[in-house]
TrEMBL record:
<comment type="similarity">
    <text>Belongs to the band 7/mec-2 family. HflK subfamily.</text>
</comment>
<feature type="transmembrane region" description="Helical">
    <location>
        <begin position="21"/>
        <end position="40"/>
    </location>
</feature>
<dbReference type="InterPro" id="IPR001107">
    <property type="entry name" value="Band_7"/>
</dbReference>
<feature type="domain" description="Band 7">
    <location>
        <begin position="22"/>
        <end position="173"/>
    </location>
</feature>
<keyword id="KW-0812">Transmembrane</keyword>
<dbReference type="GO" id="GO:0016020">
    <property type="term" value="C:membrane"/>
</dbReference>
<keyword id="KW-0472">Membrane</keyword>
<dbReference type="InterPro" id="IPR010201">
    <property type="entry name" value="HflK"/>
</dbReference>
<dbReference type="InterPro" id="IPR050710">
    <property type="entry name" value="Band7/mec-2_domain"/>
</dbReference>
<keyword id="KW-1133">Transmembrane helix</keyword>
<protein>
    <submittedName>
        <fullName>HflK protein</fullName>
    </submittedName>
</protein>
<dbReference type="InterPro" id="IPR036013">
    <property type="entry name" value="Band_7/SPFH_dom_sf"/>
</dbReference>
<dbReference type="Pfam" id="PF01145">
    <property type="entry name" value="Band_7"/>
</dbReference>
Amino acid sequence: MIHENHKRHEKNNRKNRIVGFFVLFVLFVSPRGAYFWLSWTMLFIEVGYRDTGRGSKAATIPQESLMLTTDENIVNVRLAVQYQINNAGDYLFNVKDREATLKQLTESVERAVIGANNMDFVLTEGRSEIVAQIKRDIQAAMDDYKAGIIIASVNLQDALPPEEVQGAFEDAICAREDKPLDQ
């Protein structure tokens, strides 16, 4: 009996959260009549890190952030995806756990795109191309899922070698820059 009541309470709370989330309509009443205003808030997910707020440094999540490049180097990548709901019906009824689905899909797409490029490209000139490809691939998959989500932006927060080899990587860059031009 207690378990059944708990399940019913949990189900009701879930419904309330969904209703609460979608109560973004504001009704303005003035002498001229009633006006509706709809505000879709920007939502986001973090892959490879968690922003703890409070002005402290974001915590890196190695299981999500460490990626293998095509030249078999490991890169620590932190990514943020901003999205909006463009179809409330699809958002509510077509995908069961929307945020987890988007997060897992983003991580999968990110691994595929990073894995198809070499480390120098990921860390330097390829950042904008990588972000554009990740955004396109995530949006295509979410459209296939009919998830009711539109990807507003993908932000590559960091792309660095892992902390364990950061010093060696910096030494290699310095050595490359110190080479004489005639060689």
